[in-house]
Amino acid sequence: MSVSVLGAGAFGTALAITLAERGVTLWARDPDAATAMQKTRENATRLKGIHLPEGLTVTSDLTTACAADTILMAVPMQSTAAFVTENADLLRGKKLVACSKGVDLTSLRGPTAILAEVTRAPAIITGPSFAIDIARGLPTALTLACKNPILGEELQETLSSATIRLYRSTDPVGAELGGALKNVIAIAAGAVMGAGLGESARAALITRGFAEMMRIAGPLGAIPETLMGLSGFGDLTLTCTSPTSRNYAYGFALGQGADYDPTITVEGAATARAVARLARDKDIEMPITSVVAALVEGRLDVSQGMQTLLSRPLKEEI
Ligand SMILES: NC(=O)C1=CN([C@@H]2O[C@H](COP(=O)(O)OP(=O)(O)OC[C@H]3O[C@@H](n4cnc5c(N)ncnc54)[C@H](O)[C@@H]3O)[C@@H](O)[C@H]2O)C=CC1
Ligand SMILES: O=C(CO)COP(=O)(O)O
């Protein structure tokens, strides 16, 4: 099975590094960046100081990259739909594995629904994993979800490595929702810490945020229990507690009233807005997600957001 990774950001590059032993092609859209990476054996903008092993070839030629039979899609969520439409002929019928986390703001779809336009059983790799940890060869466990159990097993074999342990699932919708929704809660957790509201408040937000994740999972077609695994609870734990997370760091900046570099990928910002719409359409209560959407859109500040959450009517925990 030949493998390519599309998208030479931090995560795409990290995944390609782990697959280099078996041979892998990494596609970067910028020809100059691709040439520099191939020559210097480093992705200096995203993973400075990490060596790109010999088995990893970088190209900006998409046709060459898409000659592989298995393709990992690591372009950010909000660019995925346009990318798939533009390159449908190259992607059609391939074994496609989504690697992004989020919900498309225009169509309100997750990555596997978008990939399903061009392939029958799209898979997803998701779970607690900072790109830098993967690139350094630190141990990581992730979920590999695919509706087709035979293809899921094949991908699990191909994409596991000495340091990445992949657990199989046949619920790609649940796996992708876990990864998408945890980023929204991570923004909230960061905001609480940035505003100095304390670790107890953060623990409450993580727990009530997880309740929201579970509440919307079933109505969106997921098996809710999937979100109790690596792709949901696991990634929620990592992202809500680490300043390495861009979503957490963005929330932290909001909490402090500080600026945040708009060129940094923060998937939870658009996803909060998309999920708030889905929740409204389906009449599902998601107060934390709604507050994060309002923070991102500048309709509330953190103290107003917290007041909104605290002033809700008292209720049973479940
Ligand atoms: N960085 C991390 O630790 C992890 C990231 N992810 C997910 O991976 C996805 C990608 O994130 P990162 O690699 O971290 O982002 P990044 O910001 O490091 O890189 C994004 C890359 O995508 C490229 N890109 C942007 N728009 C594009 C388009 N229209 N066509 C082609 N290429 C395009 C950019 O040039 C850049 O190289 C996100 O959904 C993120 O949630 C998942 C797990 C870990
Ligand atoms: O998804 C991630 C870890 O699993 C990376 O999180 P950030 O996108 O918030 O940096």
From TrEMBL:
Residues 3-149 form the Glycerol-3-phosphate dehydrogenase NAD-dependent N-terminal domain. NADPH binds at residues 11, 29, 101, 131, 246, 267. SUPFAM superfamilies: 6-phosphogluconate dehydrogenase C-terminal domain-like, NAD(P)-binding Rossmann-fold domains. Its EC number is 1.1.1.94. Gene3D superfamilies: N-(1-d-carboxylethyl)-l-norvaline Dehydrogenase, domain 2, NAD(P)-binding Rossmann-like Domain. This is Glycerol-3-phosphate dehydrogenase [NAD(P)+]. Catalyzes the reduction of the glycolytic intermediate dihydroxyacetone phosphate (DHAP) to sn-glycerol 3-phosphate (G3P), the key precursor for phospholipid synthesis. NAD(+) binds at residues 7-12, 131, 246. Substrate binds at residues 101, 246-247. Sn-glycerol 3-phosphate binds at residues 101, 127, 129, 182, 235, 245-247. The gene is gpsA. Residues 171-305 form the Glycerol-3-phosphate dehydrogenase NAD-dependent C-terminal domain. PANTHER family: GLYCEROL-3-PHOSPHATE DEHYDROGENASE (PTHR11728), GLYCEROL-3-PHOSPHATE DEHYDROGENASE [NAD(+)] 2, CHLOROPLASTIC (PTHR11728:SF1). Keywords: Cytoplasm, Lipid biosynthesis, Lipid metabolism, NAD, NADP, Nucleotide-binding, Oxidoreductase, Phospholipid biosynthesis, Phospholipid metabolism. Belongs to the NAD-dependent glycerol-3-phosphate dehydrogenase family.
